[in-house]
Amino acid sequence: MAKLTLADLKKLREAKHAEMNPRDAAHKDVQIIVGMGTCGIAAEAKKTFDVLVDELDKAGLGNVAIRQTGCMGLCHSEPTVEVVVPGMPPVVYGKVDPDTARKIVNQHVVRKLLVNDHVYDKPAADIVRK
Fold first, then answer.
1. Residue 7, in any domain of the structure
2. Is 13 within the bounds of a domain?
3. Burial class of residue 124, CB neighbours in 10 A (0-12, 13-18, 19+)
4. How far apart are CA 94 and CA 120, in angstroms?
5. CATH code (residue 42)
6. Angle 123-87-72 (CA atoms, 0-180°, nearest 5)?
7. Domain housing 64
8. Strand stretches in the chain, DSSP E
9. Do the domain assignments include residue 89?
């Protein structure tokens, strides 16, 4: 392997910084949290995470932080994805395959509409503040 130059190292650092930027929650008002416990990983949560990142890039949504967490306690419905959008209650989606991940970005995050057939947990209407 050839030695890396200082310019190569700077380029690598910039590429890694850009790759990690979507995970930085600072100054971002929308959060997408993917359950990546062992149950989530076994249910292909990594593929779901990658599709979410790709869809966010395609939509040009720089105000969205995407990150991973451990088990959310909904092992029967993995992969699970929690979405927190201002003005909407936090929602946990279950059985999130790549098509559902695309719907979450394009329907929930962009258009502020729930993906009803995959909602597994949300606050009851009587405790949501208006």
1. no
2. no
3. exposed
4. 6
5. 3.40.30.10
6. 40
7. 24-127
8. 30-35, 64-69, 81-84, 91-93, 119-121
9. yes
pLDDT at position 24: 61
Residue found by looking up tokens 């690598």 in the block = 12
What tens digit of pLDDT does each residue of 66-117 get?
Answer: 999 998 888 999 999 999 999 888 999 999 999 999 999 999 999 999 999 9
- Tens of pLDDT, residue by residue over 37-58, are 999 999 999 999 999 999 999 9
φ, ψ at 50 (rounded to 5°) = -60, -40
| pLDDT at residue 26, as a whole number | 61
pTM of the model: 0.77
Is 12 a domain residue? Answer: no
Closest by CA position to 68, among listed 108, 104, 37, 110 = 37
Domain tally, the chain? 1
